[in-house]
Amino acid sequence: MEYRELGSSGKKVSLLSFGGMRIPRVTVGKAVEVIKKACHLGINYFETAPGYGNSEHKIGVALRDLDRSKVYLSTKSHPGQDQKPEQLRNRLESSLKKLETDYVDFYQIWGLNTEEHYETVFKKGGTFEAVRKAQNEGLIKHIGFTSHGYPAFIQRLMETREFESLTMIYHLYHQRNKGLLDLADKLNMGVMIIAPLSNGFLAHPTPLMEEDFAPYPVRDYALQWLANDKRITSIVSGMKTFKELQNNYDSLNNFLYFDKTKTDIENKAFAKLRDRVGKDFCTECRECLPCPQGINIPELMRLNNLMRGYDAVYYCRDRYRFTGQGGSWYPGVKASHCDDCGDCEPRCPEKLPVVSIIRGLHQELYAGDRKSLATHQISEI
Ligand code: SF4
Ligand code: SF4
């Protein structure tokens, strides 16, 4: 297992990290076994959150038999829930109790997605003061944030220079945050990647996608593609079974940095995708934003690429259901909110008929709204 420096923290973390969001789905005994096995395989970064059901408790139980000094723990506070310093402090103390430890190595402002969240955290008397206080008391060693916001907003958070790491979504088919990697490198921030397999989409690819990446399994390619980028510190994968753990470990342990054969595969696969989508292919350049109705046009166009290019009906339908239903965790509203204002199309360098594409997509994908989401479900978006 490779280990990389996590920004300025002075800590070296394993290339594969353990995401604790899925362990609430298995028994305490099973979760503990999987966590111990992960440690045994060399994983040293374990992340969890108060909103992940009983995940903190299960990690705490596993820790009883592990060397605490060799494990880096990360847990979180969400500004939508903890709006006052005393609420954050209570949340932190509750996390420490459940984790059966007297400090966490990395504490994350979790889901720092909106201006309102920013205000809650950074205003005078805001929750960040409680985070710094806890750090001065030794309850927290290092501070990071996670965000599902737009890249410009994440950049602003990074430029506060209050954080040693950021945690964000980034994978082969979701590259909107790519531009932030150079900035993280420049600011010496650790970069933790979540949803590396796009919530299972790349672990269970469609036949067309499989064909394009052959002879490499898409799962291996997608994880190694991330690992190949040294600006990325670690890949966080939610795991609850030995099989999931072993699959991820096998993909990343002793992986070889990409040579031309590997990059050719990727170039050919993207060229095939582009061919299949044809004249409606969106480059996700984001020039069409802002939409006055709050439609996240590039995200809907990304889904359109995957629908036309890979026949990814199940995945796209699932993602589209979150649109307008996932709160700040999934920015944007459904295409049915379009009022034909005409702002977006003249801004598109590809001259795409944006309105007809997203309306067609809505017709195809809309199958009713989701019920409201519990926090532990939102965390998996
Ligand atoms: S035409 Fe529709 S999608 Fe385009 S900017 Fe206006 S409201 Fe948004
Ligand atoms: S401007 Fe055009 S190509 Fe760029 S993200 Fe918007 S729709 Fe896609």
Salient structural properties:
381 residues; alpha/beta; 2 domains; two-stranded antiparallel ribbon; 15 helices; globular; binds iron/sulfur cluster
Describe the model.
The chain has 381 residues and is of the alpha/beta class. The protein contains 15 helices and 10 strands. It has 2 domains: 3-258, Alpha-Beta Barrel (TIM Barrel), CATH 3.20.20; 275-369, no CATH class. Strands 3-4-5-6-7-8-9-10 form an 8-stranded parallel beta barrel, surrounded by 5 helices. Helix 1 (28-40) packs across helix 2 (55-63) and helix 6 runs parallel beside helix 7.
In short:
This protein is an alpha/beta fold.
Instruction: Report the principal-axis shape.
Output: globular
Q: Give helix % range.
A: 40-55%
Strand order of the largest sheet: 3-4-5-6-7-8-9-10
Q: Which series of helices and strands comes N to C?
A: EEEHEHEHEHHEHEHEHHEHHHHHH
Distance between the amino and carboxyl termini:
28 Å
Radius of gyration equals: 21 Å
What is the β-strand count? 10
Which regions have little confidence, pLDDT < 50, spanning 5+ residues?
371-381
- CATH architecture descriptor of the largest domain: Alpha-Beta Barrel
The major β-sheet equals: 8 strands, parallel, barrel
CATH class of the largest domain: Alpha Beta
Number of domains: 2
Q: Give a list of the ligands.
A: iron/sulfur cluster
Give the helices and strands, then pairings.
Elements: E1 3-5, E2 12-14, E3 16-19, H1 28-40, E4 45-47, H2 55-63, E5 72-77, H3 85-99, E6 104-109, H4 115-122, H5 127-136, E7 140-146, H6 151-159, E8 165-169, H7 180-187, E9 190-194, H8 207-213, H9 218-227, E10 234-238, H10 242-252, H11 260-277, H12 297-310, H13 313-322, H14 354-365, H15 375-378
